[in-house]
Amino acid sequence: MDHRPAYGRVLLKLSGESLMGKLVSGIDHEVVDGITGEIREVADLGVQLGIVIGGGNIFRGLAASAKGMDRTTADYMGMLATVINSLALQNALERRGVSTRVQTAIEMREIAEPFIQRRALRHLEKGRTVIFAAGTGNPYFTTDTAATLRAVEIKADVILKATKVDGVYDRDPLKHADAVMYKKISYTDVLTNNLKVMDATAISMCRDNGLPLVVFNLHKAGNIRRVICGEDVGTVVGG
Predict the structure, then answer these.
(1) What's the rounded Cα separation, in Å, for the pair 200 and 159?
(2) What does the pLDDT read at residue 174?
(3) Is 1 a domain residue?
(4) Which of 19, 195, 200, 218 would bridge 162 by S-S if both were Cys, CB 3.0 to 4.6 A apart?
(5) Domain range holding 166?
(6) CA pair distance 178, 136, nearest whole angstrom
(7) Nearest-5° angle of CA 86, CA 102, CA 15?
(8) Is the distance from CB of 156 to CB of 50 less than 8 angstroms?
(9) pLDDT value at position 2?
(10) 117-125 helix and 143-153 helix, angle to the nearest 10 degrees
(11) Residue 4 covered by a domain
(12) Rg for the chain (alpha carbons), in Å?
């Protein structure tokens, strides 16, 4: 199998839950270490990498608002949770020798740069991994939408959405043993069939900008590198 990258610039979307491992909440540092090891492999291939990570392992804005908290306040708290995760990921990456920058959509200059598109592009061109934190900086938008927005802004070739299943299925494979996985599916079919790949805003933005999306299983070692090298892993959403 060819180990040369199929993409030059990639946006990797990680869920906050992916950092929990078997914990009930918070950050499992062994899991983070495993993920950063795979990211290091990709960086060594010369791939320019942006990362967006959720905050669901620490705080979920939508869940909190359902319990009576003001949605705007809850969403801002969720954005701050993504900053915590981003700093943890940055620290783990830099321990592995991967030059990393965190850029936030909400200014907090003491701990991270504000998001500036041209600066982000410059970091990527210099071989630095850039972690985009605090979502879009606006309530009512998910980190999936933030990932799509940043991917468009940095002119990424593809979004890689890391999940806990192998790809996109016609129904939840964790609940239905007979669920069928798609190898390729169009944006429109994802929206029409209400498949829970990303929220509708994110999928629509991908479609409007012709940005392909690969959904794959993060928990299979080496999958990030395999996807980036163009191997037949996961589900391709596009067209």
Answers:
(1) 15
(2) 87
(3) no
(4) 218
(5) 9-237
(6) 37
(7) 30
(8) yes
(9) 58
(10) 70
(11) no
(12) 17
Kindly state whether residue 3 falls inside one of the protein's structural domains: no
Quickly tell me which residue has 């690969």 as its tokens. Answer: 214
The per-residue pLDDT for range 182-218, each reduced to its tens digit, is: 999 999 999 999 998 999 999 999 999 999 999 999 9
d(CA 62, CA 75): 7
Query: Mean per-residue pLDDT for 38-51?
Result: 96
C-alpha–C-alpha distance, residues 238 and 215, integer Å: 11
Which CATH number covers residue 230? 3.40.1160.10
Stretch 121-135: mean pLDDT, rounded? 98
Q: Decide if 113 is inside a domain.
A: yes
Encoding tokens for residue 99?
Answer: 């030059």
Q: What is the pTM of this model?
A: 0.96
Place of tokens 């929206």: 191
Q: How far apart are CA 239 and CA 182, in angstroms?
A: 14
Phi, psi (rounded to 5 degrees) for 103: -120, 130
> SS3 sequence, the chain?
CCCCCCCCEEEEEECHHHHCCCCCCCCCHHHHHHHHHHHHHHHHCCCEEEEEECCCCCCCHHHHHHCCCCHHHHHHHHHHHHHHHHHHHHHHHHHCCCCEEEEECCCCCCCCEECCHHHHHHHHHCCCEEEEECCCCCCCCCHHHHHHHHHHHCCCCEEEEEECCCCEECCCCCCCCCCCEECEECHHHHHHCCCCCCCHHHHHHHHHCCCCEEEEECCCCCHHHHHHCCCCCCEEECC
For 164-178, how does the pLDDT look when each residue is reduced to its tens digit (9 = 90+)? Answer: 999 999 998 989 999
